[in-house]
Design goal:
This protein is α/β, with parallel strands linked by helices. The chain has one domain: TIM Barrel (Alpha-Beta Barrel). Helix content is about 30%, strand content about 20%. The protein has 8 helices and 9 strands. Strands 1-2-4-5-6-7-8-9 form an 8-stranded parallel beta barrel, surrounded by 6 helices. Helix 5 links the parallel strand 5 and strand 6. Helix 4 packs parallel to helix 5. The radius of gyration is 17 Å and the shape is globular.
């Protein structure tokens, strides 16, 4: 895996979760802008497909929690989705904030030289298709750009789809609960990183990940004592909600 053709690692140590996804409506450009205002230079976000195959940012399969819409997002066209209010659920000051297309987010990070971790968050049943479509879009949007994003997913099939259409874009396997097959899974997918719930990461796992030639990252560490322990044990990156508490230059 560590060959001359492996892309350069695209992310700094600190990564803002869903933009500044607690202080602003998650997965919106407003959240990205606020994270940037706090000094963050890399962002994680969730990507899925509209009914007509447009990649856009949303964590849940349903629209209800974080927008004025309802039902499955995958059942609606991007034209309809783009007219929803994805900000007023969070606070009155963000009323009218729209859902963000992948293309809009990419233009923002490229204009500012930021890093991006794209979590493939497919609607159930669209795992491979989501990876394939987002992979193609990433190649189109990053054409001529030196700094690629990182794909990640809890769904190995989604990562397989991304590898089929964008094999040169680095991949990371997300892990929320322990399982013995994690290393074999990550290696079979050609991953360059393992990204775990911070509670799963310990010194032994960091060492095993590094011995396999991969980076060890965690989500979503928001407590100073936890962050200190993780850093002391050699993690390579932290995805956090607490963009107002951790300075990314530290």
């Amino acid at each position: 895996m560590n060959t001359s053709t492996t892309p350069a690692w695209p992310l700094p140590f600190w990564i803002a979760h869903r933009g500044a996804g607690k202080l602003a409506p998650e997965n919106t450009l407003a959240a990205f802008r606020l994270g940037a205002a706090h000094g963050y230079r890399a962002f994680e976000c969730d990507v899925k497909l509209s009914q007509d195959g447009i990649p856009f940012l949303l964590h849940d399969s349903s629209l209800r929690r974080t927008s004025t819409g309802s039902g499955l997002a995958s059942a609606q066209s991007w034209s309809d989705l783009s007219r929803l209010d994805a900000g007023s659920w969070h606070s009155r000051s963000y009323a009218g904030e729209p859902l963000a297309s992948l293309e809009a987010v990419v233009r923002f990070v490229q204009a500012n030289g930021f890093g991006l971790n794209l979590e493939l968050k497919p609607t159930p049943g669209q795992e491979r298709l989501t990876g394939q479509v987002v992979g193609r879009e990433v190649l189109r949007l990053w054409q001529g750009q030196a700094r690629l994003p990182l794909f990640s997913s809890f769904e190995p099939v989604a990562l397989e789809g991304a590898r089929e259409t964008a094999p040169g874009v680095p991949r990371g396997l997300l892990l929320d609960s322990p399982r013995e097959s994690w290393l074999a899974e990550a290696q079979s997918l050609g991953c360059v990183a393992l990204i775990t719930n911070y509670r799963l990461m310990d010194a032994a796992r960091v060492q095993a990940i590094h011995a396999a030639g991969m980076k060890a990252l965690v989500y979503t560490a928001n407590d100073a004592s936890v962050v200190a322990w993780l850093r002391a044990n050699g993690v390579d990156g932290i995805i956090t909600d607490a963009v107002d508490r951790f300075a990314p230059g530290d």
